[in-house]
């Protein structure tokens, strides 16, 4: 509908405002723009000779009034006459008012229809002053927020939040000066659309047949676009920049249109509000420029209690229901989502009415969902379902599984018919509210909640073989399990748990009674076979498989014998826990392990509750952690435990230390990486002397205080400590901490390896060097890379090299050694008493001049076997000096690393001399050097020499052309003892 303003003033008035040249340009642009808006072109002969008045009449004769204005407005923008666009916008408010009225009616209707019965009434949908204040803060002009991401689980109320926001705007409560238009896009429904344009999407949302798109897009800073359930589009916002579109009239797939908006290629001045589930939200946050991230957490405990009181007028029953929910974490978590709160309360009421123990019904989510659905399809007062009810549920399961495998949450009527749901069935399913109509688009339907769809999909596998499904995308039971365990699957949240849960004896009995036949007994065997195969390759699938999801599935099944069988298969497990339920479920499964060898766990945010002391200890927490850490004493083959990327509170620490102290704890390797202690970390260190098997401790990336280091010193220096290797990389150590570490080196009887890389040690190295010179120090390996060492260090280290009888491996990489410092070290390395065998000086600012000193070491040292100097700009001149030394019979070097040293093919003749004369050089790393085909061909000649001893060559064939690649491949085939590595 066009504004009366345009009828009163007409287009001619605006055309009269154009200068002569602008008017001619207007005609030319008109010819270009009309097809873009899907309008039939007016004869160019008529347009070319038309006056301003005649052209206005032509436009109104050929197009509807709004279309005529739309194309005029678009051409004004192309001409740069924003003044005319702004004048029209100021003088014409009719369109905005019409649209606001439409949105008010539309979303009032949505809230009344979409809401679960009684939920709408009890959880007030009226907009309060407090809510208006909150909404205004989201898009304050001074904050310059352009993109707002609203995170929340499916069903938490994201769409309802948007609806209330639109209602508040349409009623004039908020954003009156901020937004002229707010457009809502449901991504579930956009996914069903063919290619269109942003103009097409706006027109689709408009109350009439023709939207004033040009008028709307003339002021993009006054627009807010809402994209609801963005994850449904499957977009990762990773399209190349040149694929994005900037023109709102350009026809593209809806996914690309939203990407273009979000990445500010199209209408960069507009604002966007995107709702997304938390899993996809992280990817969105990483891709967008400075988004504002908010989270919806759902109903509060008070809201749940309020709703229960309404559902259960009987006070005793209401209290019983509330206590059941409050004492079950999974149930309480479900009830934070309004639609699932209704589902839970409805089921509890049904079970109470039948006199069934609701505590038993709510023990597992599967039991709750099966009771809810089976009761829905059982007529009131009947002993069992009708055959129509049985058939309808089976058809619903068929539809659900098709949706899972085709990534479909919204279904067309043809999908329903394909799965046996006719018109009468659809009416029944809508009345039961197990299916809901999509309010945006007629003829589209969705399940009450995605979890209901997943339950029905799982049930399908017990009712029929997947091969009986008419859709080719539907795959077998084993594929279902593997897909469920993939971390990348956004929609597969519960289906695996439901599948395992339906195998519980009580569930099988319920389902057998409902359907009148015994369900498939093959499923359990198929699941076990799948897990057998998975266990064999678990170490290769780290990061791809969610073992926590498997734990939840096994927990849902609650069958000890099957659980023992499955957990006996597991040798390598890695998972993260986020809430206490995760920990409880993991502990339930882990205590049944017997063959576990490696366990990696990340505790992210567990037990972080508002208003609660982080160090407080509860019996439930201790029990959870006790079950998790019990593998330390029950799994005799467990060799490695890694706790990483998270938090350890007092409960976790106390339980871990208790298990580490047990005589039957045979753990050898302990990793505690990037962990924050919400307790006294020294408790962990005090456990070390009580475990004679613990040999390797890695605390890298975990920040240690001075007191921590002192306690660590005491533990490692204890006569019963067996720790041999200690890694403290990037632990925020300082020069003062080196005193305690130095004392450890002198007192520990077992420690032979220490890595202190990436710590700002500075002058603390002096204390370490004194300790290394002490006769009681038996350290063999020392890494001090990236420790900000300076000139005064080299003399101390040179003294260590001269005096220490044990130090055989020294890593000083990424320190400012330079040629001057290298000379100091080389003067000592030449002494026969120097025991060093491996020296790493990567990225130490060494030049070709420094190679002169290294060359003299290579010909005089009787112990040095490996030299790593990659990342230094020694160039061909430096390598020439090294090669002259390597070719000498007195040089005993076995490994040389000169990757990324600026070498060219000019040095290959020198390298060939080494290959043909050295009796000891076994490994040579030449990666990341700009060699050409001629240089590689020379190297291959050297490799073919009968006296060549080289067995490992670092050279990335992918960096060369086809001819060179063929040469290297032929060389490897010719010499079976030679390995050419593309990474070192």
UniProtKB/TrEMBL annotation:
<comment type="function">
    <text>May be involved in inflammation and recognition of cytosolic pathogen-associated molecular patterns (PAMPs) not intercepted by membrane-bound receptors.</text>
</comment>
<dbReference type="InterPro" id="IPR007111">
    <property type="entry name" value="NACHT_NTPase"/>
</dbReference>
<dbReference type="InterPro" id="IPR001611">
    <property type="entry name" value="Leu-rich_rpt"/>
</dbReference>
<protein>
    <submittedName>
        <fullName>NACHT, LRR and PYD domains-containing protein 4</fullName>
    </submittedName>
</protein>
<dbReference type="Pfam" id="PF13516">
    <property type="entry name" value="LRR_6"/>
</dbReference>
<dbReference type="GO" id="GO:0005737">
    <property type="term" value="C:cytoplasm"/>
</dbReference>
<keyword id="KW-0433">Leucine-rich repeat</keyword>
<dbReference type="InterPro" id="IPR041267">
    <property type="entry name" value="NLRP_HD2"/>
</dbReference>
<keyword id="KW-0395">Inflammatory response</keyword>
<feature type="domain" description="NACHT">
    <location>
        <begin position="146"/>
        <end position="350"/>
    </location>
</feature>
<keyword id="KW-0067">ATP-binding</keyword>
<dbReference type="Pfam" id="PF02758">
    <property type="entry name" value="PYRIN"/>
</dbReference>
<dbReference type="Pfam" id="PF17779">
    <property type="entry name" value="WHD_NOD2"/>
</dbReference>
<dbReference type="Pfam" id="PF05729">
    <property type="entry name" value="NACHT"/>
</dbReference>
<dbReference type="GO" id="GO:0050727">
    <property type="term" value="P:regulation of inflammatory response"/>
</dbReference>
<keyword id="KW-0547">Nucleotide-binding</keyword>
<dbReference type="Pfam" id="PF17776">
    <property type="entry name" value="NLRC4_HD2"/>
</dbReference>
<dbReference type="InterPro" id="IPR004020">
    <property type="entry name" value="DAPIN"/>
</dbReference>
<feature type="domain" description="Pyrin">
    <location>
        <begin position="1"/>
        <end position="94"/>
    </location>
</feature>
<dbReference type="InterPro" id="IPR041075">
    <property type="entry name" value="NOD1/2_WH"/>
</dbReference>
<dbReference type="GO" id="GO:0006954">
    <property type="term" value="P:inflammatory response"/>
</dbReference>
<keyword id="KW-0677">Repeat</keyword>
<dbReference type="InterPro" id="IPR011029">
    <property type="entry name" value="DEATH-like_dom_sf"/>
</dbReference>
<dbReference type="InterPro" id="IPR027417">
    <property type="entry name" value="P-loop_NTPase"/>
</dbReference>
<dbReference type="InterPro" id="IPR032675">
    <property type="entry name" value="LRR_dom_sf"/>
</dbReference>
<dbReference type="InterPro" id="IPR050637">
    <property type="entry name" value="NLRP_innate_immun_reg"/>
</dbReference>
<comment type="similarity">
    <text>Belongs to the NLRP family.</text>
</comment>
<dbReference type="GO" id="GO:0005524">
    <property type="term" value="F:ATP binding"/>
</dbReference>
